[in-house]
Design goal:
The chain has one domain (2-233): P-loop containing nucleotide triphosphate hydrolases (Rossmann fold), CATH 3.40.50.300. Helix content is 35%, strand content 26%. The protein is built from ten helices and ten strands. It has helices spanning 40-48, 70-75, 93-98, 115-121, 123-127, 138-150, 168-183, 195-201, 219-223, 226-233, and strands at 2-11, 14-24, 29-33, 55-60, 63-64, 78-81, 156-160, 187-192, 204-209, 212-217. The strands form two sheets. The protein has a six-stranded mixed beta sheet, with helices on both faces. The protein is globular, with a radius of gyration of 17 Å. The two termini are 31 Å apart. The structure holds adenosine-5'-diphosphate and magnesium ion. Residues 40-41, 83, 160-161 line the site of magnesium ion (MG).
């Protein structure tokens, strides 16, 4: 459903993405791994329309959306769980969830997300629905960021470093949620520093280094090449 082709993106004067090719098929979980500063977030923001690539295409169902505004990309069924979560601290949990809520696109299969279903998936958020975003723990904020994205009823979820800064038990919980959402037919682009989480969840793994995708394969294939893991991931 998403095809990234020969994408070149700058951040300021930094030439970060130097010809990235990557495909995210419908209903699959595609992981993106890579060391800090390699450009993972830059790629996510380029797909989402937050950064305009200097060259290349981001095709959504065959249509190039590179450089289109992010609300347009969102309307076509792509939702972002941003790195750092970016919860609205002064709004309540419920306001954070309903802010960008929208019904699914025509032809949508799978769950249609509503508030009560988000609270079912994340009971803590239901308990704290009147609390302000800024009062939540890091783990709760991560769940809120995921819930907020689900409320837009996307076809594809871009998850940028969802395990960052979380305790191991919460990281496991994020892994379970990714598995559950994928089981429901949601496409997931999982950007991670956490090798275990990515490998456990993904159909395909891509490794970003030096501005391009330097390796691509299945989790089992990545498991079989320790030198690739060592060189590009340090694991
Ligand atoms: N606002 C910015 N202006 C200039 N360079 C930036 C900016 N933000 C990030 N960078 C640089 O862009 C590169 C890629 O960053 P990023 O996409 O955040 O990497 P990752 O998500 O893989 O850690 C890094 O080298 C970083 O220093
Ligand atoms: Mg990042």
């Amino acid at each position: 459903m998403i095809e990234v082709e020969d994408v070149h993106t700058y951040r300021g004067i930094n030439y970060v993405l130097q010809g990235v090719d990557l495909t995210i098929p419908d209903q699959q979980c595609v992981a993106l791994l890579g060391r800090n500063g390699m450009g993972k977030t830059t790629l996510v923001e380029t797909i989402m329309g937050l950064l305009r690539p200097r060259r290349g295409e981001v095709r959504l169902d065959g249509r190039n959306v590179a450089g289109r505004p992010s609300y347009e990309v969102a309307r076509r069924g792509v939702a972002l769980v941003p790195q750092g979560r970016h919860i609205f601290a002064s709004l309540t949990v419920e306001e954070n969830l309903t802010l960008g809520a929208r019904p699914p696109l025509d032809g949508h299969t799978g769950t249609t997300w509503k508030l009560d279903m988000i609270y079912e998936l994340f009971p803590h958020l239901g308990d704290r629905r009147r609390n302000r975003g800024g009062q939540l723990s890091g783990g709760e904020q991560q769940m809120l960021a995921i819930g907020r994205a689900l409320m837009t009823n996307p076809r594809l979820l871009l998850m940028d470093a969802p395990s960052e800064g979380l305790a191991p038990a919460i990281v496991d919980r994020v892994g379970e949620i990714v598995g559950q959402l994928r089981g429901e037919g949601l496409g997931i682009f999982l950007v991670e520093q956490n090798y275990q989480l990515a490998v456990r969840s993904a159909d395909t793994v891509n490794i970003l280094a030096g501005g391009t995708v330097v390796w691509r394969g299945t989790p089992a294939e990545l498991d079989a090449v320790p030198e690739v893991r060592e060189q590009h991931l340090g694991v």
